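Possible regression after last week's pipeline update?

I re-ran a chain I had predicted before the update to compare outputs. Posting the input and the new output here so someone can diff against the archived version. Not blocking, just want to make sure nothing changed silently.
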Amino acid sequence: MKVLLIGEGAREHVLAESLGNSSESYRVYALSSYINPGIMEVVRKTGGEYLRGNVSSQEDVREAIRTVGPDFGVVGPEDPLFHGVADEFRKEGLPVIGPSKTCSQIEKSKVWMRELMWKYQIDGRLRFRAFTSLEEASKFIMEYGGSVAVKPSEQVGGKGVKVVADLQAYLSKEKRSALSRSVDEIGSLVKSEVKIIIEEKVDGPEYTLHVLTDGYSYLPLPLAQDYKHAYQDGIGPETGGMGSISGPGNLLPFITREEYEKTFEIVKRTAESISKETGDTYRGFISGQMMLTELWGPTVIEFYSRMGDPETSAIIPRISSDFGRILQLAAEGRLAKAMLEVVPEPAVVWAVAPLGYPLRRDLASGKEFQLDLERMREKGCKVYFGSIAYEGGKLISKGSRALELVSIGDFEESSRRLESCVKLINSNTELIYRTDIGRGIWEQQDKAEIVRYSYLNRVKRGTLGVSKDWSPNGGLW
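New output (post-update):
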């Protein structure tokens, strides 16, 4: 059986590996804009073929489908979904993992997502206002007295989010003025008419739940947590993710079973609401980027219409059942037959990027990497290739996170193991990575306990989700 994988990063390397290791003996074919060495290894091992092309081009994907004649497809990244690549498989009558262009709006448009949650009264929703005028957005920031988060209205690769909290009154005016000045910068990232979305600010530990659905059945995967900021201890610019943790079991050390089940209910209801709103059945991954807050408990920050990266590297290696076959069952509408088994031990992921990432990707491009894969594997580290190409017999960086290193086991032990493995990477540039990922878990447990006390008190008082200065229809008074 032939499967065509669309994408080229570490997430797609993990997906390719799960397909290549399946008992179904899939022949893995791939379409990428460059040759990912990890995906290439799987393609060669399974007797498939590696195709080059634009993964977001419907024409290139149609040509790949005609060339390969796959039995089903897997679309990894969000941009191809936004451009209707999954639709191309379905036009040919082929099963595919990945929602339609219409359904993937849940990730592409933050405004559409918030409006949907309010229309269908889905728990965990935040109050918001959307602005087509950057001037009006700036004016609102200066006049509104509460804490806010300012975001681009569309998915722009994790860029542009700004937050102001009114914790110190004497700094309020200065902070608001600085945030107001950044509105033009945020708005410049967006192509649509609606430029800016301003949400009420919430605080708490973040986590992600990925759910796989065929439109009939829903399979929640283990929780993961992404570490967005570029530098140690969560400072610096936001990135696509500098690492991740998952486990133990299906949970995280700071999220309870009840919170997991509530989060699953929120994500499932959202997928059902998308189908109802669009008339197009949601099929593929839908992932809730969540925060545990005193306002709601499990609270939606945003949704993905695919698996997250690097969360995929923390989740799938912990799945002991045949995940490749699970993907096929979901694509074919037979997900009810899937059995998901997860190892109890947690996983820790460290991403490694060249100097220059994330602000100067031109400086992070074209750098040469060498690594001792055999010794890294002997030490217990799995390696997934991301924004790095096999060119002329060398590994050359493409400007983003080049590698993702994974260790399964106790958090502290895994972090020490990763620290020894990252030393086996050489490059002609300085490397950027965070050694705090997987450490200091107790701090998040303490924070979660404080938040949990507050939102459970709201449950007792019947005030869950109630915020005094925001109107009940999702906007401001």
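Follow-up from reviewer: compared with the archived run. Residues 2-105 form a domain with the Rossmann fold fold (CATH 3.40.50.20). Marking as no regression found.
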